[in-house]
Amino acid sequence: MKMQQDLDKLKKINKIFIKTFGCQMNEYDSNRIFDSVKKIGYEKTDKYEEANCYLLNTCHIRDKAKEKVYHEIGRVKKIFRSKKKPLVIIAGCVAQAENQEMLKREPYIDLVIGPQAYHKINDTILNYIEKKKKIEETDFDAVSKFKYLSKIKNEAGKVSSFLTIQEGCDKFCHFCVVPYTRGPEYSRPFKQILDEAKYLADNGAKEIILLGQNVNAYNNEGYRLSDLILNIEKLPEVKRVRYTTSHPKDMTEDLIEVYKTSKKLMPLIHLPVQSGSNKILKLMNRKHTIEEYLNTFDKLKEINSNIEFSSDFIIGYPGEEGKDFKDTFNLIERVKFINSYSFIFSPRPGTVAENLDLIEKKISIERLEKIQTTLFENQVQMNKSLEGKVIDVLAENLTDDKDKAFGRSEYMTSVIFNGKVSDIGKVVQVRIKDSNKSTLFGEVITSSDQKVA
Ligand code: SAM
Ligand code: SF4
Ligand code: F3S
Fold it and tell me: What is the pTM (predicted TM-score) of this model?
């Protein structure tokens, strides 16, 4: 009876607008939050003005993350100035870091919910509607979260679907907030993940991207990431498997060996190194050396020379001297990373590196520009080298004007080609005619699904 009354109330206020900042894990979470609130009558809207619930899923990794959130709330306030105020929920990593403070500082915020408390979201909303009590839910309870979510179907229904297998981090790199915002490392039960993968595949997923802050640290009763890959690729509907983000220290032999046997694991490995200098890696508490990193690189290249690497770099970490930067530069020349991310070090509250002496901003900017130029050149060269060649592309959707199709190469590069609706969800062969830094352009030769083996 009571639940019915709550649902009746919701029927009048049932449109949610979800805005997501940050990493793929936040994207996965936003989809799962929506899967959950659907059960209490919410529909999704992509128009601010239509919403009566506004949820901001936040990221705390760099810069003025907190200020960005308040700025965004200011925008929402303006949009709703002459309308009824929506229910405002702050989720994600800033919610975890700031918790109670957010409710105090900004009365426009109604609920604050951290990344390991999403199993409580429906009750929290219903409770607010009934009692108008503002609350903050920021316990680390990954077990209950995933137990709850495993009972609610993952309705993402995309050709390429995310699947979180691991959360949190025990590594405590000195620059990083993740261990504080996502809590300790937790690996979801093996069977729970396989069930979710099967459900995704049954509902149209052709590519599954396994996610974790340290995805290759996955360990559930002895099952490792390698076991998940080999089991998920048995699903006939699944054409491609990927995983991200890996830590170099957790590139174990079993995972390296999978590259010999797997039929569907894509040949792009995102393996953040942060710096090419052992001195800086030590200062960052990264727990591996450049020699160990290159050893993993060499082993994988020996198994399959087509494997390519992408990475994350932090430039201008406190203590970085010219020779340390040169080491990073040399590493980039040696590995020829593609698709990499690079940022200037941003001091984060509560981390060991928070109060270290920063190096001169001008120097950091110069160094960043230098490595970005080289990283982009690698990317341009890689794309140019494909012109005239035929590559496999997983077609994901039609472009907005419906004129062309969008898909991705094995290396995750965007490909625009003359595909049709019937190509969506298929791996098609595309002859590349042209390219720029981020995109390949081509024409379909044939659907490789129809190829005779
Ligand atoms: N777990 C992954 C690893 O260890 O490589 C990284 C996850 S973190 C969410 C993504 C990236 O954000 C990091 O690889 C790092 O380059 C960047 N990052 C984290 N903290 C940062 C900071 N304080 N300043 C600049 N970049 C940062
Ligand atoms: Fe952050 Fe380091 Fe953990 Fe990666 S391994 S999430 S960079 S603390
Ligand atoms: Fe950002 Fe949290 Fe992801 S800080 S990068 S949203 S784990």
Answer: 0.94
